[in-house]
Structure formats: structure tokens, C-alpha cells
From TrEMBL:
GO biological process, any: carbohydrate transport
Top-rank lineage group of the source organism: Bacteria
Coiled coil residues, start to end: none
Residue stretches making up the ABC transporter domain: 4-234
Annotated protein name in UniProt: ATP-binding cassette domain-containing protein
Amino acid sequence: MSRLVLRQLAAGHGRAPVFQGLDLEVADGEFIVLLGPSGCGKSTLLHAIAGLVEVRQGQVLIGGHDMTDADPAERGIGMVFQSYALYPTMTVAGNIGFALRVAGLPAAEVAQRVQRVARLLQLEPLLQRKPAQLSGGQRQRVAIGRALVREPALFLFDEPLSNLDAQLRTELRRELKLLHRQLGSTMVYVTHDQVEAMTLATRLVVMHEGRIQQVGTPAEVYGRPANRFVASFVGSPGMAFEAGTLRVGPQGQVSFVSSRLQLLLDPATLDHPPRDGQAVHLGLRADQVRLHPDGPYEAAVQLVEPLGGQAVVWLDLGGCLLAALWSEPVLPAPDQRLRFTIHAAGASVFDAATGQRC
């Protein structure tokens, strides 16, 4: 069992803790991704789990055992860093099996485990090569193999793909997802890359300024963000916002009203009872702004971002910028006026004062 539980955790490098009072539970076999901007505390949290930074208060439980004060070597973890940190004079086989040899395992068992890991990571033809003879993607697979060969209870990944080019990132992302499916191991992965987070995670942990903002599946976090920060940070392009007020009708109808938009909302999208006259921000994603020649709204095209088979069209609605998706082969021109409608069922509403989801 490799269930991870963090209770009221506080940790940091300097005088002030990077985070405190943090609670999180990771089930056995989950692939959890810690997502957030630089400086939000996600790497510090990972290092606290690994025992690489001091835990000032709280507990770290791995597999039901209190590892808060345990040495990193005693925690049963395998960690992969952003830097490959391979021994340049050792072969691939030597790098992968180094920790096992240091631990005093018999040579035959070391060779067997190295071979098994190399087969799993498609490194068998490269076992006798030195790191200088490998590509960046191959070096990162060796670093993963070095963690994997120890057969840890818990895998920790600290932005392992950030040094790779776009194509290698895509390939290794796919390989990591397949590896998780094959092993069924518990994995905690740190990144600021939304695509990595959305494609890899069974659950996302979105962090900001040392606090957990939301925990949920990628679909939950994308579709029902807990606050404006999560709404703006998760998703590409980010969510657009329009300030306005809620109006509650005599039959319970809920409408959003601003100087530019009037929209009847689906009450099912609200987490709390609406208040008539409540100041809010309406949040709209690109797939909720639908271009249609008979739409009730009209706006000028400010910018077009081609993405291959699709494009993002930015519409200037009197100072409110909305993103819409375009799939036609001929792209609209800047300043061209387009009509659109809004799919209210997927809209998000946030309290103007607190930023929390209404």
C-alpha cells in the first residue's frame, strides 16, 4: 500500500513557511498532479513529502506509517528531478542499478531488475551507452528507470519534462501515462504546464500562494472551478470574465446582467443560492462562446490564433475580450464583425468580493 496522507503540514526553506495547515489525501494507485504558477509552493510540498525540506508541523504518512521525521532513504520513495543528474562515466545500466549496488544487493539480482526496467522503458538497446551518447528524452527515461528499479511505494516527479522540447515532452508524457497504467503505483507529479496536468492526472491539486485552491478530476477543475484563480489558470485559452449582477425572478429564474450581456443562467451551475442584486463575475470559456450568424451578440475580431485544425478567435465586446473557437478553413480578418451566442449551461459565476464560485 502506498496511500499518502498529509495532515496540517507546514514547511519552508527560510524563516516564514512556504505553506502551512495543508491537508491532502492521495489514494493508493492515484496519479496526482500538483499544478500552479512558479513560487506557489508545489515543489516545496513535494520535497517535504520526500524529506528534503524540514517539516515544521504536521504529519507525512506513507502507506499508513508516519514518515514525518524519517530519513529520505527510509521513506520508500523514488524521485525524478528536473535535472537528469546522471553519472557521466557510468553506462545506462550502471546508472540505473547504482542505488541497488550501494544497498548491497547481489549482482545477479541487480542485473535482473535493471533488465526488467530497461525493457519497460524501451532502454534495452542503450544499456551499454554513456549519458553523453543519449538524447534528452533517453536521459530522462534513464532517470525514471533509476527511480523505478528501487521498486518504491511512491513515485515523486519534480517537473521532469521541463528541459525537453515540445515533441519529446509529448512522447514522454504518453510513456508516463502508460507506465502508470502498467504499474498501478501511486505517483505525485509537479508541473506548471496545464497540458501535462490535464492529460496525466487522475486528480489535480491546484495551488496558489502556498494554499490548495481546488482538488478534483481534470474535468471537474476545468468545468466547475472553485474560484477565479483556478478559472483563469486552468484552461487554454483562459476563462474570460465580465462584471455584472445577478437578478432572481419571482419564479426562481436567475439571470446575469451587465452593460454588455444579458444571460439566463442554469441554476444547476450555481453552488449556492443566488441573491438578487449580488455583484458577480461571469466566467466564459472558449467553447461556451459559439459563433453563429443569427446570434444575439456581435463583436469585432481583435486577434486570430491559428492552432492547426482549429483557431482561437478573440472578440472585443466593447472592452470585454472573449475567446471563441473557429474550425472553418478560411480565417476571419481582424476587425471583422461576427455574431455569436453564449451557451449558458456551462457558464461559471464568481462572487465579486471573494472570488469564490457562487
